[in-house]
Amino acid sequence: MINPDAPQTGVRAVDRALDILLCFSRSETGLSLSEIAREVGLHKSTVHRLLTSMLSKGFVRKQPGTDKYVLGWTILELIHNVYHSDELTTAVLPVMTRLRDATSETVSLYIRSGTERIRIQAVESMEPVRNVATIGKTYPLYVGASGKVLLAYADAETLEQVLADPSIPADFSREDLLTQLENIRKDGYAISVQERDSGAAALAAPIFGRHRFVAALSVSGPVTRFTQSKMSEYIEVVRESAALITKLLSH
Amino acid sequence: MINPDAPQTGVRAVDRALDILLCFSRSETGLSLSEIAREVGLHKSTVHRLLTSMLSKGFVRKQPGTDKYVLGWTILELIHNVYHSDELTTAVLPVMTRLRDATSETVSLYIRSGTERIRIQAVESMEPVRNVATIGKTYPLYVGASGKVLLAYADAETLEQVLADPSIPADFSREDLLTQLENIRKDGYAISVQERDSGAAALAAPIFGRHRFVAALSVSGPVTRFTQSKMSEYIEVVRESAALITKLLSH
DNA sequence: TGAAGGTGTCCCGCCAAACGGAACGATGTT
DNA sequence: AACATCGTTCCGTTTGGCGGGACACCTTCA
After folding, report:
1. Residue B159 belongs to what domain range?
2. Which residues, 6+ apart, have CB-to-CB distance to B189 below 8 Å?
């Protein structure tokens, strides 16, 4: 049961249907009807009826092999309206650009995708020597400031999968990572120096949506420009920018 | 009124709510309550009630300036589950890879974003001389095979905006483009030879989702390898691949 | 083999709650 | 000032959603 005290506003059936959709944003592997019913605290038959509506509209679908429900392709049809909506370009991008101007380093926006992270937006530094940011590119989660931010707010299952990743170097300290993740959750930012790329340093801070952690905002550049004093200055502006975007996202 | 004959299955309130959400995938600028009510053929008060539910869950939100409704940030939280879901990598990517192997040229998947197009997925050719495809990169709509496909299935407003684009070269024939778009809709594919890049040629075909046109699939490479006979061969395989993905998306 | 527990699906009687007409205040337009 | 159109709220009617229960189908124990 997610929400014991119902908001008691609007249409109940719709509230429940949307609750079901939100369940999917938490589980990556798909959900069975009974799991959903347990999660939202409703009778199986009720959930079944709601799901058939969403099924016929393509908002959810059944995985071919298993009988589990997953999000449907219709969501894809909504994406470019959200993802490239006016607000994301007229609200988030300016914040990123301002952050770039304040630090004169490359600014990136990452979301987690399974056990990887993907850069969904970037504003590059104007310096001749700079971090080149390709939108859409993916990186591991266990290295880099934004990777660790994404990991710090990921579910336990994802963390486990990442730690079990065979491509992690042998000398990588998992204990060290776990304490770092705790510090990130406590402090609200992450630092990485020469982790992903030798010669590069980065700072990152979490961005929260309406219901949960959404993305990581990072500033990255050549390690030579990230002096101790610059670093502490950047920490402030990155956290401010992330907080501003968080505020924008919860409108 | 979108759907005069209701499917009469599942929960009506949910069906209506999802219909409202689908309205947004068509209009890029946001919709007022009355517009939505007109579109789905319901009473204003009914739409208002449904919208308050979706508003409280963050599925829609009101634009700060105007009173228009637009899709909310909660949709973002669903995206990475769909966009990078197992199926998109285990279903669409293999089709793209097979197409790459059949043509030994670079294969790209584009969606339209306003008056541009963005490459959301790519499988590169293995040839030493090849079209290098960067995921996330954007291109204009009025040149290139996939650009024209995206334009052929875009709404009239977008087409108008694109034709009014001041960055279009002076010698560009808009009449020619319009007849090309008609042919694309008729034939189901587009060809471009040395349009976007000199020395490059491309073929593209439309991919349809459950409710509407979604994306364009393209094969591109050096024009020297796109002989007349190769061209007609590629047209077939591109259309087949696009049709296969369309089938997958409607599950 | 059969009992036990887990699925997903379907049916149906009851009554809560969704529907839409109507009215309201606020804006903007002729 | 009259008019049109907007978003919002209220309320009586009755419709359609609710969930208990039944069912068939699994797998897993005894």
Report:
1. 84-249
2. B145, B149, B203, B204, B205, B235, B238, B239
Interface touch B209/A15, C-beta < 8 Å: no
Per the structure, the count of domains in chain A is: 2
Q: Are both B101 and B167 inside the same structural domain? A: yes
Q: From residue B117, give the alpha-carbon distance in Å to each of A68, B4, B150, B214.
A: 34, 33, 8, 12
Rounded CA separation A123/A135 (Å): 10
Q: Is residue A187 part of a domain?
A: yes
Q: How many angstroms separate the CA of B37 from the C1' of D4? A: 18
A132 within a domain of the structure (yes/no): yes
Q: Could you tell me where the beta strands, DSSP code E, fall in chain A? A: 60-62, 69-71, 106-113, 116-123, 138-140, 190-193, 200-208, 213-222
Q: What is the mean pLDDT of residues A90-100?
A: 84
What pLDDT score does A136 carry?
Answer: 67
A87-91, A180-184, B121-125: which has the minimum mean pLDDT? Answer: A87-91
Name every residue whose Cβ is closer than 8 Å to that of residue A61 and which is 6 or more positions away in sequence. Answer: A55, A69, A70, A71, A72, A73, B251
Say whether B209 and A71 touch across the interface (CB within 8 A).
no
- Running DSSP on this structure, what letter comes out for residue B103? H
Q: Which residue is nearest to nucleotide C8 (CA to C1')?
A: A33
Would strands A106-113 and A116-123 be described as parallel, antiparallel, or unpaired? antiparallel
Q: Please tell me the least confidently modeled range out of B5-9, B86-90, B158-162, B189-193.
A: B5-9
Assess if residue A54 is contained within a domain: yes
Exposure letters B196-208 (e unless 16+ CB within 10 A, then b): beeebbbbbbbbb
Check whether residue A65 and residue A90 sit in a common domain.
no
Instruction: Work out the burial of residue A2: count CB atoms within 10 Å of its CB; fewer than 13 is exposed, 13-18 middle, 19 or more buried.
Output: exposed
| Other CB atoms within 10 Å distance of the CB of residue A101 | 12
Please answer yes or no on whether A71 and B85 come within 8 Å at the CB atom.
yes
Query: Worst-scoring range by mean pLDDT, A170-184, B5-19, B225-239?
Result: B5-19
Burial status of residue A106 (CB atoms within 10 A of its CB: 0-12, 13-18, 19 or more): buried
Please indicate, yes or no, whether residues A187 and A102 belong to a single structural domain of this protein: yes
The band of B86, judged by pLDDT with boundaries at 50, 70 and 90, is: low
